[in-house]
Amino acid sequence: MYKLKCITCGTIYDPEPNMYTCPKCGERYGTLEVIFNYDLINVKKSDFDKHGDISQFSKILPITEYKVKQVVGNTPTYEFKNYYGIKKVFFKYDGTNPTSSYKDRASAIAISKAYEYGYDTIYCASTGNAASSLAGLSAPTDLKTFIFVPKNIPIAKLAQLHVFGANVILVDGNYDQAFDISTKVGKKLNWYSRNSAINPYLLEGKKTGAMELAVQLDFEVPDIVFVSAGDGTVISSIYKGFYDFYNLNLIQKIPKIIGIQAKGADAIAKTFSNGKPYTPVDIIPNTIADSISVGKPRDVIKACKYVEKSGGTFLTVNDEEIKTAIFELAKNTGIFAEPAGAAAYAGFKKAISMDLLKKEDTVAIFITGNGLKDIKAVQDNIKINPIPPVFEKIIEYINGVKK
Amino acid sequence: MYKLKCITCGTIYDPEPNMYTCPKCGERYGTLEVIFNYDLINVKKSDFDKHGDISQFSKILPITEYKVKQVVGNTPTYEFKNYYGIKKVFFKYDGTNPTSSYKDRASAIAISKAYEYGYDTIYCASTGNAASSLAGLSAPTDLKTFIFVPKNIPIAKLAQLHVFGANVILVDGNYDQAFDISTKVGKKLNWYSRNSAINPYLLEGKKTGAMELAVQLDFEVPDIVFVSAGDGTVISSIYKGFYDFYNLNLIQKIPKIIGIQAKGADAIAKTFSNGKPYTPVDIIPNTIADSISVGKPRDVIKACKYVEKSGGTFLTVNDEEIKTAIFELAKNTGIFAEPAGAAAYAGFKKAISMDLLKKEDTVAIFITGNGLKDIKAVQDNIKINPIPPVFEKIIEYINGVKK
């Protein structure tokens, strides 16, 4: 029903359980695309439900059976008219997923594939949303889960993993060391890998965000889409979701994709702006936006190629812009986003300031995680003095506030 | 379309903007019930959608127009068969609401009422979910919001309020002082009150949780429902939701309601076990379960009367049982609950151990808040040693874990 194609050399492979990346091009250049024969996929607009979870896209997903208990997807899309002078702005908010981030869309597919291939154990290396997502979604299944985390992981994130009953391996080293040892161990023990970019099916899970948006907008997709980018898989997936729908004649165009990176973690933006052939530029990341704080993005080639195909580009925003965006987004829309999610909104504002948007555009902004996942970015901004519980003092304060 | 009836003296009042509690019976004994003439409400099962948000219950809500932008409700219900030997156990998980708690159901109605009555400002005193919920849902409206919080509020919760742009009044005193001064100021400045129990419409918003469960279960309601109780409004609302549906001939029975309180905050349980006439027993609360850590429950009379009518009772669980419940619930179901939410699950287990449940029972457990709202209850339980990133050492560790 589908094949795997190398993003660099274009070799086409039949899918096999142990096939993750192109053996010829390696893990960095050889990430794989899932390609479908669209003629064999029989879907029409009325097959889809505005309130459906991601299992409704099963016919366009590389799985034989959807195996996840929780409701993944069916996240809200909010419309604001004449927002910053733009005709229609849609906010797609994925913080209401089971573990409160976009990553649940990927983990759901990884778990389904693990079952399909008969694995009893699934693993990943991560410090963040991918880890909690895998731990949470696999909790009510009978899969064993191992999460490799670096020693400096915040205690709160470690706690979340334990709560879901995942086996946590605290590696006495940094993230890269945890990642490398996880791959070695996973291969040796024949575990299924949920490491981002390495596993081509994760992107397929994530593409459901774009498809869901299209369904919720009655298949009238926006002109331009803003999405934050770390390792490059989410942004690639947004393109792929629209691409599949376009090829299935469900939508009339593919939106321009604008990738937003933190200034302190702009490896993909740098690679993109250097032009073709895309050659990964790695950096030492430094940004408050944890989930997109990536120095060596594993899906950089795909991200650059897809964004280019869409007619889009990359923009960067600094940490101050991200912080401001968290507050403004929450105040204007009621969405409390984690820093990586708010980065997309900061990028939208940057595009406005650069006159990249037209009044008559329709725009969608993907907000990929719940602000409760990372409150340290906002709590420093709070300065407030206590007031005695005395009527006159309180009234005086309120009169000051109201002006 | 509806009237207000005092829970103690039974006097019936026509609703008025400034009417919160019965003037004869006072704030504690005189909380009001919203009563409908069910003959005038024309609804049938097919009017309701398993994926609808709470606005679908508008005909059975005391509002003229639903005015909230975010998707409140449409939270998942998960079914587990033969769970602890019980035929069917349903978990109703409200952590996916806009601000990640059950309280959004109440705030949505409070905001709609504030608009209906022409108020420009809405307020509450709170340190927790009610505050963030009001701040979050009112953010994209043009209502001004004032939140009175005691000085000792955790910085994380304070941050969340600021993010949504609410005006925060940090009262140099405890919660009771903040509550009392908020009421005085609110009355004086003619603001709308979202203080729990005092405002009878909050319970009406919360009752949608029971109605939604009924709709999702094809109107076959469970035999027994577990729900945690703090000030008594949520548990009363669960009864009221089923009661309304029963009187509208949509369901065939009202489930037994089992209220779960933390041992350190068992004011309602004590009042209930002392028997009729219910006389509030106040205590000094001490429990890790913030959201139900209430010493002077404001809806205690209603909670006792409704639970009695349902044929249910109250049980208490200690903090250790609540902590254990968080982990077990997460592991078994994939739901990461805040302590108050997990208390209901701990109560379910207590009921099992007391032989209160029969094999053929169907049971529902309300999980009222997302664990990300309060991680301190779990992080102390984490003890784990780092392992060097050496293949053999990691394998050795894994072999130990697998046994």
From TrEMBL, chains A, B:
Q: Which organism is it from?
A: Thermosipho japonicus
> Domain named Rubredoxin-like: which ranges?
1-51
Which cofactor names does the annotation list?
pyridoxal 5'-phosphate
PTM-bearing positions, type N6-(pyridoxal phosphate)lysine: K103
- Keywords from the named record: Lyase, Pyridoxal phosphate
Domain of life, per lineage: Bacteria
* Gene Ontology BP annotations: isoleucine biosynthetic process; L-serine catabolic process; L-threonine catabolic process; threonine biosynthetic process
Assigned protein family: Belongs to the threonine synthase family.
This one is known as Threonine synthase
Q: Which GO terms describe its molecular function?
A: iron ion binding; L-serine ammonia-lyase activity; threonine deaminase activity; threonine synthase activity
- A Pfam family in this protein? PALP
Its Enzyme Commission number(s) read 4.2.3.1
